[in-house]
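Continuing from the previous page...

OK, I double-checked the sequence for DUF5997 family protein against my notes and this is the correct one:
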Amino acid sequence: MTRQRSTQTMKPATAAKKLGVHLDATPDEFRAGLVSRDELDALQADPPEWLRELRRNGPHPRQVVADRLGVSISGLARAEITEPLTTAQIAALKEEQPEWLRRERGTRADAQREEARLRAERSGKRRDNPVGG
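Thanks. Re-ran it with the corrected sequence; updated structure tokens here:
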């Protein structure tokens, strides 16, 4: 006898995060209940118009804003950007190039270089000393 698999569900906030959209901008019916894994997969495979519109124009959650600006979420916080931004607002910031944006992009680039250096160093140690590395 095989046991029937239970349906895996998640809160709307988790589903919105996985979809890369701001929860408060989603339709009421999306926010009203749980989202199954199958429903999430269907939304990702064939997004409805509301999801395509949110991904295209926003408002976008912090992670998406940070990625599109090339900064970290911490960088957004340091710049006191706490609200979701639209695609137009992100484009305006990129065009404007305020000092905080240039500084935070540099900070992120430095952090990424350091991470790459540490990864290379760790992988080099493993090759040199496969037993104790």
